[in-house]
Amino acid sequence: MKNPNKILVIIQRSNGDVFLSSSLIKALYEGYDCPQIDILINDDTISVAKLIPFVKNIYTFSYNEKKNNRWKQEKSLIRKIYKKYDLSINLTASDRSVFYGLIAGIKTISAVEFDSKKSFWKKILLTHYYYFDNSKHILENNLQSLNLLKINYHKIHYELKVQKKVISNIKKLLVSRSVKKFLIFHPSAQYNYKIYPQLLRDKLLFDLSKLGISILITGSKNQIDLDIKKTLPSHINVIDLIGETSIEEFFALSQLSLGYIGMDTLNMHIAASQNKRIFAIFGPTNLRMWSPWSNQLRISATHVKPVQTYGNVTIFQANMPCVPCGNAGCDDNHNNSDCLDNIDPRVISNEVESWFMSKKNNLNTRIKIETELSAGNQI
User: What's the rounded mean pLDDT across residues 211-223?
Assistant: First the structure.
């Protein structure tokens, strides 16, 4: 394929999917000598999409507008993208996303299902296709189109840069709370079935408060996060920041932190991209696809285990035969997940404490050596 001047990337899924598309977009931009890259996303992921570099225009699809007047939205979107692109790349196998890819691009690459009944027409119409593989990490799935385009890439989830003024604002916030070194604890997720139960969360926070380091609790202003905020216990070293930072400010906060403790959600992937120490609590989620990506080893988790560590990542799961089921809770309707009720908070706090004390001892040893060397030089 000749170097395309205009590329559309379609990512009609969640915040995590949009964020994890940034490595693909970077590779396209560098591999094709700075083309114009636009993206088409769902409107509830716009705050994350705006932070991705190399993107010129962002088109949005709204499920609320679809309910009110489906065809008006469809017509407007089609007019904006119809055959405007030399190349379109669709990262999901949904019929709608594939249709948009075919409408937009002179040449189109898309993920498709393994099920031939669902994908046969897509294979016929697409220029190239690859299979969306649930046994592979989402980052690896997103990068598959680069193989078809013969673009070299590294299996790295690149950190997104944050504006200096945003970092400065977060530093001022930390000073106002008398925070120096700190860990992030993120107790929330997009859905309730991914959230660690309150009783166990309270026990975990009590143990973490005894580490002797600030534990910053993060979250947005959505209803799930605000409900958690109302239930937070008061402990020394535990500081509630729920509702006080934007998504870009969380990037800055995470960048300044020592590590991340918390749920399987976008914030976990942000910390992983920054190569932070990760302690992630997983419920029914497909681990192979959604575990934190380790840039150190360029791998994700590939097996199920109550506690496992690879590179800078430690994952906690329940020791139950149904884990992970991949459902949206035990009723598959976004409610409770029994597996999260069966993860002992002491196991989590012991792992965090072991890592932190080792880090603290290494730092003290280095300071002692540097002091002795300095004293020797003076003599």
Answer: 96
In this prediction, residue 1 has a pLDDT band, given cuts at 50, 70 and 90, of low
Q: Are residues 130 and 179 located together in one domain of the fold?
A: no
Share of the chain above pLDDT 90, in %: 90
> In this structure, what CATH number is given to the domain that contains residue 331?
3.40.50.2000
Number of domains in the chain: 2
Which residues is 240 bridged to in the sheet?
217
Residue with tokens 């496992």: 308
The DSSP secondary structure of 212-266, one letter per residue, reads: SSEEEE---SSHHHHHHHHH----TTEEE-TTS--HHHHHHHHHHSSEEEEESSH
3-state secondary structure of 60: strand
Can you tell me the distance from the alpha carbon of 131 to that of 115, in angstroms, rounded to the nearest whole number? Answer: 10
Give me the sign of the Cα torsion angle 327, 48, 270, 5.
positive
In a domain, 256, yes or no: yes
Tell me the residue range of the domain where 94 lies: 6-149
At 328 the pLDDT is 95
pLDDT tens digit sequence for 94-109: 999 999 999 999 999 9
Selected residue with higher pLDDT from 264 and 68? 264
pLDDT tens digits, residue range 305-314?
Answer: 999 999 999 9
3-state secondary structure of 101: helix
Question: Which pLDDT does position 378 carry in this prediction?
Answer: 58
Cα separation, 122 vs 191, in Å, equals 32
pLDDT level of residue 9 (50, 70, 90 thresholds): very high
How far apart CA 266 and CA 259 sit, in angstroms, is 15
Q: What is the secondary structure of 141-184 as a DSSP string?
A: HHTHHHHHHT----S--PPPP--HHHHHHHHHHHHHTT--SEEE
Distance CA 197, CA 360 (A): 30
Q: In this structure, are 66 and 178 located in the same domain?
A: no
What pLDDT is attached to residue 375?
Answer: 67
Q: Is the peptide bond before 324 cis (omega within 30 degrees of 0)?
A: yes
Does residue 109 sit in the same domain as residue 233? Answer: no
Question: Which helix (H) or strand (E) segment is 36 a member of?
Answer: strand 36-42
- Per DSSP bridges, beta strands 85-90 and 6-11 are parallel
Report how far residue 324's alpha carbon sits from residue 301's, in angstroms, rounded to the nearest whole number: 13
